[in-house]
């Protein structure tokens, strides 16, 4: 199992890449939909590990408690950033489709 700090990095990195593509004009609705599906699949695989790690059973005695709390905070803010960025992408997709319809 990877440390949680790596998971939050992955959760944050994907929407950032997609956001850059949106800003650069390489916007494709299929890309966002596929990305969300991939994100959900990955979340399904890593969620049990994350839940175990966040529980006290998953914390080994030789890990400093401050590192554990820092990992939890990073995970929370990484997932929050991922969620917010995906909401922005949905908004951009809607705006893009409205522009396409009205020419």
Oligomer state of the chains in this structure: single chain
Which range best describes the helical content: under 10%, 10-25%, 25-40%, 40-55%, 55-70% or over 70%? over 70%
User: How many β-strand runs?
Assistant: 0
The proportion of strand residues reads under 5%
Sheet/helix structural class: mainly alpha
Radius of gyration: 17 Å
Distance between the termini: 49 Å
Low-confidence stretches: none
Average per-residue pLDDT, rounded, comes to: 64
* Largest sheet, strands/sense/barrel: none
Q: How many structural units, i.e. domains?
A: 1
Total DSSP helices: 3
SSE order, one letter for each helix or strand = HHH
What characteristic shape results from the CA principal axes? elongated
């Amino acid at each position: 199992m990877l440390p949680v700090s790596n998971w939050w990095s992955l959760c944050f990195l994907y929407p950032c890449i997609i956001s850059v593509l949106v800003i650069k004009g390489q916007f494709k609705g299929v890309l966002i939909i596929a990305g969300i599906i991939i994100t959900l699949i990955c979340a399904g695989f890593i969620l049990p590990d994350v839940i175990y790690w966040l529980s006290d059973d998953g914390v080994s005695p030789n890990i400093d408690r401050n590192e554990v709390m820092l990992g939890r905070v990073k995970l929370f803010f990484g997932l929050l950033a991922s969620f917010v960025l995906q909401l922005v992408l949905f908004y951009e997709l809607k705006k893009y489709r409205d522009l396409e319809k009205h020419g």
